[in-house]
């Protein structure tokens, strides 16, 4: 992989990570860290409207941010990154500024840099301290900070929102009753 495609991939993925994470309260210092990307294979074109494809256990780390996918396609338009497509069981993990973690999994993530819309599809689960969001499709508009989610077919969106008081104290396990006692 020549230096230019590697820089393109790193720039797009760093932008994706920083922009998406910024809306979620991600660790601010992560944006100032280098991004390390590894993959089994890459194919990158040098044209202004071409793409870079990374395959085979693609891993990206930047500070506390960690992204793993089977495949990443970085598209550019007019020489600038325009879209990042991550597929094949994507996991995203990052520590927020308050020290808590956000974890997300989906079959695919499609990030359009022009519209600033991130679309998670396929068995989406987003977990953080205050709760979880599950569905087949979650759309996050970074410009408006709006989240839209839906199930597929008869599927439903599932959310669990914990009260603030539950954040301070982890749930205590109750001891099992002694055998033979009523």
UniProtKB/TrEMBL annotation:
A Pfam family recorded for this sequence: LptD_N
Carries keyword Nucleotide-binding? no
One Gene Ontology term, aspect cellular component = cell outer membrane
Tell me the protein's name. Lipopolysaccharide export system protein LptA
Originating organism: Thermomonas aquatica
User: Localized where?
Assistant: Periplasm
The record's Gene Ontology biological-process terms are:
Gram-negative-bacterium-type cell outer membrane assembly; lipopolysaccharide transport
Organic solvent tolerance-like N-terminal domain span: 37-145
């Amino acid at each position: 992989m020549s230096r230019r495609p590697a820089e393109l991939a790193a720039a797009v993925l760093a932008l994706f990570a920083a922009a998406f994470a910024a809306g979620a309260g991600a660790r601010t210092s992560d944006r100032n860290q280098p991004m390390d990307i590894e993959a089994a294979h890459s194919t990158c074109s040098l044209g202004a409207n071409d793409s870079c494809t990374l395959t085979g256990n693609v891993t990206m780390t930047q500070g506390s941010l960690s992204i793993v996918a089977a495949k990443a396609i970085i598209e550019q338009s007019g020489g600038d990154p325009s879209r990042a497509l991550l597929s094949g069981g994507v996991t995203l993990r990052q520590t927020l500024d308050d020290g808590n973690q956000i974890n997300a999994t989906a079959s695919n993530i499609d990030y359009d840099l022009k519209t600033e819309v991130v679309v998670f599809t396929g068995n989406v689960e987003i977990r953080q301290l205050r709760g979880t969001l599950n569905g087949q499709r979650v759309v996050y508009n970074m410009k408006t900070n709006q989240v839209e989610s839906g199930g597929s077919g008869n599927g439903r969106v599932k959310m669990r929102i914990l009260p603030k008081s539950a954040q301070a104290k982890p749930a205590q396990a109750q001891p099992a009753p002694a055998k033979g006692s009523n």
